[in-house]
Amino acid sequence: MDTDALKRFVDRIENLHDERKELNGTIRTVYDEIKEAGMDPATVRVMVKERGLDNVVRMDQYRIRDEYRRALGLYADTPLGEAAMERAGASKPKPFAEQPVHAPRTRRRPKLKLFDREHPQGAA
Question: For 15, phi and psi rounded to 5 degrees?
Fold first, then answer.
């Protein structure tokens, strides 16, 4: 084994880890600046992530999310969503606070019978 080469590799990796720590700190600072500017850092993170995706993958994710939003009725409160709900003859979903509350389900456990007959020595 070439111990000098191994040491060089380990040194390079350690240096890259140090650089990554510095970059992560700088990125955190930028997100702090975004927040101070009145923008939503979480949304900007999503935008940065989306821009890094392949165009086909990004469009596919948009399509899937759109289908899920429609299925969950998340577009029902928009003018277009209200028109679509009227056209489909569907009723508008109630806000969460107005939805009926169901009593919690309770499961009764069957009583276990350990022996088919009484204990041979008389104890129950």
Answer: -65, -40
